[in-house]
Amino acid sequence: MSFSVSPWRLSVAPMMGWTDRHCRYFHRLLTRHTLLYTEMVTTGALIHGNAAQHLFFNDEEHPVALQLGGSEPADLAVCAKLGEERGYDEINLNCGCPSERVQRGAFGACLMAESTLVADCIKAMRDAVDLPVTVKHRIGIDRGESYDFVRDFVGTVARRGGCQVFIVHARNAWLKGLSPKENREVPPLRYEMVHRLKRDFPQLTIIVNGGLTAPAQIAEQLLHVNGVMVGREAYHHPWSMVGWDTAFLGAPSQTATERAEVE
Which neighbouring-strand residues pair with 10? Predict the structure, then answer.
């Protein structure tokens, strides 16, 4: 961005099976500056699979962040470097996905129980690249509702790993008993937990995610935190993104679609 607004002020969430490069290109036609995220890409897919295919994106998608799934610091460092070489603007670590398949790989939301390991992963990636390295996580796991849990997670990852940007889905992740879809709907939203994180860590960039759809909701959240990440609303109702640049990012409202019509 060429203007002085945080790159995390407004973003579209990484969503498996949805935010592929075609979806992101379409979103970019509707909003010029909203930060876009890839689907989660596992370290195994990049190290043992076709990295070029997994990392491909169109230059028009910038700003665009690569979300990685993994829990081995050395592997994550290698993959973060691959992302930097491909031209991504940010590397994000998934600590929020609750699916059993992801849990079997020992990453995603279950990593919230291992804050020291997450800190080591972040530090390894930060040492490997010059890009921002961020974390996306939940406010808790299973049915525990203690604020201290998420506060200590953020504090450890910030202090030991040097992470400065935390994207917080304002629901718990139930590791057993709920499907990924149910995990996006059943655990209650508790935005105040995210607001409290911002109050307790004013030096950090705190982004809220979860259940936000209307412009008025986005504007309300921006009074408390540094940014808002929108998920399913951007996928199911993409035209709602038209006007975001002007309303929330202080940028010209002309989209790529409008420019094409003028040209």
Answer: 228
Report the 10 Å Cβ neighbour count for 116.
11
Dist. CA 9–CA 225, nearest whole Å: 9
Measured distance CA(24)–CA(235) in Å, rounded = 10
Annotation says 97 is catalytic:
yes
d(CA 177, CA 150): 21
Q: For residue range 45-75, what is the model confidence (pLDDT) as tens digits?
A: 999 999 999 999 999 999 999 999 999 999 9
Q: Which of 58, 63, 12 is nearest to 39 (CA)?
A: 12
Considering the candidates 23, 79, 97, 121, report the single residue annotated as catalytic: 97
Question: Containing H/E element for 91?
Answer: strand 90-95
**CB-count burial class (<10 Å; 0-12, 13-18, 19+) for 256:** middle
Q: What is the pTM of this model?
A: 0.93
